[in-house]
Amino acid sequence: MTTDTLTVSKSPVTGKVYEIPAVKEDKTGIDAFIALHPGKKVVVVQGLGFVGSVMGLVVANALTEEYAVIGIDLPSPASYWKIRSINEGIFPVIASDPKIEEYYQNALRKKNYYATFDPYAYSKADVVVVDINLDVQKKSAKNKDLEGYNVDLAPFRKAIEAIGARCKEDVLVLVETTVPPGTAQKIVRPMLEAALAQRGLPADRLKVGHSYERVMPGPKYIDSIQNFYRVFAGTDEKSAAAVEGFLRTVIRTDEYPLTRLGNTNATEMAKVLENSYRAMNIAFMVEWSRFAEEAGVDIYEVVNAIRMRPTHKNIMLPGLGVGGYCLTKDPLLASWARMNLFGSEEKLGQSEKGVHINDKMPVYAFDFLRSQYGASLEGKKVLLLGVSYLNDVGDTRYTPVEGFYDQLQAAGCEVSLHDPHVKYWEEKDTWINPQLDELLQEHYDVIVITTGHRDYRGNAALLEKIKQQPAGWIYDTIGVLTNEEIRSLQEKHTVKVIGRGDL
Amino acid sequence: MTTDTLTVSKSPVTGKVYEIPAVKEDKTGIDAFIALHPGKKVVVVQGLGFVGSVMGLVVANALTEEYAVIGIDLPSPASYWKIRSINEGIFPVIASDPKIEEYYQNALRKKNYYATFDPYAYSKADVVVVDINLDVQKKSAKNKDLEGYNVDLAPFRKAIEAIGARCKEDVLVLVETTVPPGTAQKIVRPMLEAALAQRGLPADRLKVGHSYERVMPGPKYIDSIQNFYRVFAGTDEKSAAAVEGFLRTVIRTDEYPLTRLGNTNATEMAKVLENSYRAMNIAFMVEWSRFAEEAGVDIYEVVNAIRMRPTHKNIMLPGLGVGGYCLTKDPLLASWARMNLFGSEEKLGQSEKGVHINDKMPVYAFDFLRSQYGASLEGKKVLLLGVSYLNDVGDTRYTPVEGFYDQLQAAGCEVSLHDPHVKYWEEKDTWINPQLDELLQEHYDVIVITTGHRDYRGNAALLEKIKQQPAGWIYDTIGVLTNEEIRSLQEKHTVKVIGRGDL
């Protein structure tokens, strides 16, 4: 039997390869799971990604109610392994949060978290939590004209269709996906009502709401879902009440009270506004970093001074760029919605602009290196310290290191990679050597700090090893080197720091 | 003897008119004052505006040293009255902070705060604190194309010249004015060095530094200078040490430690960056307010929900516009400096854009009213609640209410004004009736809330009186009305709120 790449799914966690079944049916498995939990409400979590798989875990460990949780995802090469992994006792997300394993072992013991690909699960659901991705298609980061983008709702619609074709007439559909504002009211609810009508069912008991998580993969992964403020709304009064009732059973609402907003447009807007605020504040600092470089100023020193004001605590720092799943796309979702779902003739120009500025940061970081370096970079040996977009976490989704890495490659550099938190760089299909000592036995022309991991901050041993390298370039794109460290490196090396003109 | 407007100066505090002396000389007065304070260091504060006059007060009440303080300003119609007022026992700034009067009475008792117009004072100064204005010339708010601006350094240079022509060779010149980054190093120090050279004096004992206050006129006026974090730098090591020594004597540095930055470019940049950050964050919300109006969302509710996140506490709210002396010009000073003092070909485009967006807010607020109102506004009676740009403070400098007021006037409205904190609106040369009850005996077609004063928030008596008005329009440009208040007003009136499409 042949197993070509379209019919297998490989786990990056264990390396195990699963054959995707030809017959996409799991009725027996679902029925058997539900039979184990008589009288319990069934919660189906749609999407087993970074949010959905862990949301399922949180619901399986709900605070005041026992649920039977079914996680559902597509039987695709990218997702099928997650389904098998959950059912085989290996959680598909590697995280530094010990609660992940604790919650998962709990669920295994209670046998109340099952995974499947069969949409038959929707027919059993009292609650469906929608946690699938809704992506923005951007032009490639290799293209310097990064301003084009597109929002394709087709996969999202397909997921809602799958629910509507089978759901109970009184199901609660809780959208947690970050969606263009207007989606629950203008897309999800009408689609589900039409589907019920087509099945000859009334729509007056249907409940549709929206609430967004603020999940942060990392050491507080579970807490960022269960012990954090939630904002929610319903498409009508009944829906809002149902969402509130459900959230109260899974989230520690005594310590983190729920906030109900007037309608789902408002909650959907709140989520993308939050992230646009952050993206724009980073973009704002980009120009000031350039100004600081020109004026012989250390922008990090300036920002730290400003942050002493309580009203300015959240001023951001510049760096290599912006990564992750939210800040890189949410402002675009919002702007798209304004024009396409609410018929405005104006986009959210400043928020879009913020994304574009941030997208170009790795281009600037590379140009800065190239122009300062003087000589050609071809054939130079370059070591990147960090590929994750976030400090102290192994998350490479939309990491700005990728664009920087691509440009080094295109310039003919021989690039080595290190990251203490990333074993396997999925987007580049590359395994990463976690042994920094081993990597530093090689000699590099340029060592670039690309992520602000704790391992690279104030690490005297690392500094000593870098000093033992032959004279070369040290390029700090994040501003983690202290003045003292810079001066000590300058005894031998050339040091450049983004946002600092005062070295 | 005639006293035309060029030779008199009128106090808006007391109404008293002073004749400006023809002979601009006060050597006797200055010498007599200094003779009262043998052995004390002389601090000259240049500029007796909102900052300088109060900074003088703080230095006269220094914590660990007794200074003889001379405030100096121009013998002009706009400023001469301040000099006379200080010397006659009436402090020229009206503020709700009781410490102002306390500190002033202290200084009167100690006789250690004298005011003059005679630059002879500089020859006696151990320290000169520069607290004059440095303005940006913008196109008129009546012009919808607001994007032009100009920075004219001539008045600032003239003030530095006045110091250089007379100062001691070892004077400390501490610039507190918000200046284009680069000013202390590239303008002030070279000018003073050249002036000393011309007088045959060496420049090696000259000290020039920069430190910015974060003064907030209002109930914590004095504290905002004396009990708050300060950032400083010197143009050389000696200057930095001198600035630090001086600031330690006047500021509560034990509780609010000083922050020294690498050079004066950095401190100058920090100040304008702080204010640009805030201006840009307000501008950012403008687009989102429009989106909220289109999507039937209450932007205030959304922002309040987002603010529950510690990382998002400082997200701003929209409103009628941005006023005051700092946020309306500092981003422009910075952008101007980048191009004109550091030769960059790029402006700080986003920061400039932020100012322009904010400048257009009153235009939008008026257009919103006009388009919603339907009928012509000509001859309509309009009451504005608030002319100050800041809640609970009477400060009309660059208040956005001005642009809004001008447009109402131009549209032929009959505009009445109220503000509990502003007796006299200087920019409009208009006295304001503080008796709201009296004003509300008239009937208005439109009542507009233009400032978020506490007096207008949750004020049941006010609400009752507004409800007793004949059916008309209530227009909240700040979002101070609660849902309940709106509903109660809607029983009779038409209510519109900027940033809310959900009424």
| Form type of chain A | globular
Mean pLDDT score of chain A:
93
Indicate the percent of residues in helices of chain A.
25-40%
Summarize the main sheet of chain A: 8 strands, mixed
User: How many E strands of chain A?
Assistant: 19
The N- to C-terminal Cα distance of chain A equals 63 Å
Largest interface, Cβ cutoff 8 Å: A-B, 58 and 58 residues
Spatial sequence of strands, sheet with the most strands of chain A: 5-4-3-6-9-10-11-12
Q: What fraction of residues of chain A sit in β-strands? A: 5-15%
* Secondary structure category of chain A: alpha/beta
Subunit organisation of the chains: homodimer
Number of helices of chain A: 17
Under CATH, the topology of the largest domain in chain A is which? Rossmann fold
CATH architecture of the largest domain in chain A: 3-Layer(aba) Sandwich
Find the CATH superfamily of the largest domain in chain A.
NAD(P)-binding Rossmann-like Domain
Report Rg of chain A.
Answer: 24 Å
Q: Which regions of chain A are unreliable across 5 or more consecutive residues at pLDDT < 50?
A: 141-146
What is the CATH top level name of the largest domain in chain A? Answer: Alpha Beta
What does this entry look like structurally?
- Two copies of one chain form a homodimer.
- Chain A has 503 residues and is an alpha/beta fold.
- Chain A folds into two domains: 8-261, Rossmann fold; 360-497, Rossmann fold, CATH 3.40.50.720.
- Helix content of chain A is 38%, strand content 15%.
- In chain A, strands 5-4-3-6-9-10-11-12 form an eight-stranded mixed beta sheet, with helices on both faces. In chain A, strands 14-13-17-18-19 form a five-stranded parallel beta sheet, sandwiched between helices.
- In chain A, α2 crosses α4 (98-110) and α13 (361-373) runs parallel beside α14.
- The first copy, chain A, is globular, with a radius of gyration of 24 Å.
- Chains A and B meet through α9, α10 and α12 of A and α9, α10 and α12 of B.
